Amino acid sequence: MTKRDYYEILNVSKNASADELKSSYRKLAMKYHPDKNPGDQESEAKFKELAEAYEVLSDTNKRSMYDRFGHQGVSGAGGSRDINDIFSNFGDIFGGFGGGSIFDDFFGGNTGRRRQESNRRGTDLRINLKLTLDEIAEGVEKEIKVKKLKKCGKCDGSGAKGHNAFESCRNCSGTGEIRHVSRSMFGQFINVTECTHCSGEGRVIKDKCDECHGEGVVKGESKIKVSVPAGVSEGQYIPLRGQGNSGRRGGGSGDLFLYIEEEKHKIFHREENDIYMELDVSIADAILGTETIVPTLNDEEVKLTIDPGTQSGTLLRMKGKGIRHLEDHRRGDQIVKVNVFIPSKISHKEKELLEELSGSENFVPKSQVHGKKAEKAHKGFFKSVFG
Fold this sequence. Notes:
Blueprint: H1 6-9, H2 18-32, H3 41-57, H4 60-69, H5 83-90, H6 102-107, H7 111-120, E1 125-131, H8 133-138, E2 140-151, E3 166-168, E4 177-184, E5 187-194, E6 203-205, E7 217-228, E8 237-240, E9 256-262, E10 269-271, E11 274-282, H9 283-288, E12 290-295, E13 301-306, E14 315-318, E15 334-341, H10 348-357, H11 371-386
């Protein structure tokens, strides 16, 4: 299914400021919030769509990637997240007084639970993913090993020895909140904060799991397969939702970000989607012309024609032999820079031949010297080069 444009979803222009994005998101999210439209699947779908669009456009790096490459440039961002993830990650947009949410005021509900989940959410992880130019040119599927915090298998992430291992928090009487009442000449004010003793859960563990010691997570390692599209660049990243550290005691998992690191190639260097290489040719081949075989990224050997009279520094373009574009199947080109090889040592016979050639006006750079100056120049040209 074709995705809608993120700017269109948020009803803003492509040069909208951060404040304009936030304002529009607030307005539309309030309109389509599931608590305001109970049972309306269309509203819930629009709410998720808004959250996905805002997640991308509110992040400077993601927005830049989206502006350059469209949806392909931010593949995996937000699309598979559930409603609770959206609440926990975007609640700060609606932040009000006392650390609450504007959703609390309008809709009530179990926002305390959402806040607890957010507090226990696992941290994000960042890994550098090294890729060769060959892998970047064609795209590749990689399997990577990630060391991270995983849900404890013994207690299923609860941190406790069974369901009866919990008791109500005495500090907050099981509410998960502490209320502070203050009075002034203007009236009574109530400030509600999260209970620090139970982290807002309303309960504490009285009998902790022996494996994770009450944390609900243990150190482990996961193997993750990732599909890298062709045409990615150094510094770009691939977000893998929910593949970061697991959250404490049932909290949601963080995300894993794979940052692209381009390995140096022994022959080629890259400029956007074009690749460059240098080719040494002899003086004779440069003058007479020749055909030679050059390597390409996909190990194919291609015949390249060197035209007669090719100058050192000439750039020869091989169409479609570069790197595939990120968004489509077009390819960049392979650029071959010709370097005319001049030997540092020659035999006596070779020297005589060259001195004989130096008498021909074809060996005089006419664009630089004329007349008598040319006569002197061509007599001394080879002598100055070879001694």
